[in-house]
Design goal:
By secondary structure, this protein is of the alpha/beta class. 45% of the residues lie in helices and 11% in strands. Bound molecules: flavin mononucleotide.
Amino acid sequence: MPVITTIDDLKQIYRRRTPKMFYDYAESGSWTEQTFRENSSDFDQIRLRQRVAVDMSGRSTSSQMIGQDVAMPVALAPVGLTGMQCADGEIKAARAAEKFGVPFTLSTMSINSIEEVAEATTKPFWFQLYTMKDEDYVARLIQRAKDAKCSALVITLDLQILGQRHKDLKNGLSAPPKLTIPTMINLATKWRWGIGMLGAKRRNFGNIVGHVHGVSDTSQLGAWTAEQFDPSLDWSKIAKLKKMWGGKVILKGILDAEDAKMALKVGADAIIVSNHGGRQLGGARSSIRALPAILDAVGDKVEVHLDSGIRSGQDVLKAVAMGAKGTYIGRAFVYGLGAMGETGVTTALQVIQKELDITMALCGGRQISDLSRDMLLIPQDFEGKWQA
Ligand SMILES: Cc1cc2nc3c(=O)[nH]c(=O)nc-3n(C[C@H](O)[C@H](O)[C@H](O)COP(=O)(O)O)c2cc1C
């Protein structure tokens, strides 16, 4: 058993064990991948203030997100095709999150369905919605999430059309993979993944196949999703979706203070400052750079969360100390899942919690509510001077 001390350790194992097509799917940004890279490298520009002679006993990383107790201010982000990274991936990740005490968010584009994840867990999880043109289907999907007792609806706003990720096009990404010669050669070296997949509950999109007229297999699905994502989604439609759901709503994909104000107007319970992990608008700012202006605009009126680029507990601390009430990890948990299934997700969460805890202590904090901007050294020009 290798000694795992960082998220990158998990990534190295994940890379060896997972088919190239799915590794590349996760490990890509759109276009030149500038935003994907800067999401992480911008965290590195922020330094920490070391404080001493502060009583460090009785520490805790526990906190709350949208009024829910969390073991640390970190949720699992919605990740499509998680069940292709590892057999029954959504179920395994949801179980790991539940045992650890952090929220799990199920993607619309998951492999395991809402019902399968609900059956495999005991506490409510969150459901992420992509809006489709087929309004009946969206209404049924929302109803299914209600029936499964999901405790929040995360509506993703930054993917009405798909950002181009070159590798997915070159690899011919599909679920399950199409057996071309290069794919078969690659799969032959991934026996652990293959054996797992043979026993998987499902190998297609569980929230879609069988729930939409005319979609009975995944070969029709690619064309269906390209056609079906709703390019006309606007604030009035978001307000309608919120009403239809009737519970807590989190709006994901806000990167601009003006949009944050609109989210506030439609009554979001929380917003996620996010650029989809650099997978959509390549060339956009990193989330951590966008955070201060959004906090200045709406931070005292709505819970502000952040994702994109988080690879350590130090990154979590930086985001929370700047003012985010919670954070999400996407790739960091996928690496764990692809490396070692449920145990790997738990390991990823443990690594992050330990880094958060030790860093908090060495910065002179004992609990999450102690974290504040004056624990950080933020470069003076961090937000940058941009001409609109
Ligand atoms: C492989 C992959 C699939 C994703 N699928 C979805 C999705 O189905 N719905 C969604 O709202 N966001 C999706 N995202 C974006 C994540 O929810 C999250 O915003 C992003 O991963 C955060 O960046 P990080 O990976 O650097 O932590 C996906 C991200 C990745 C890496």
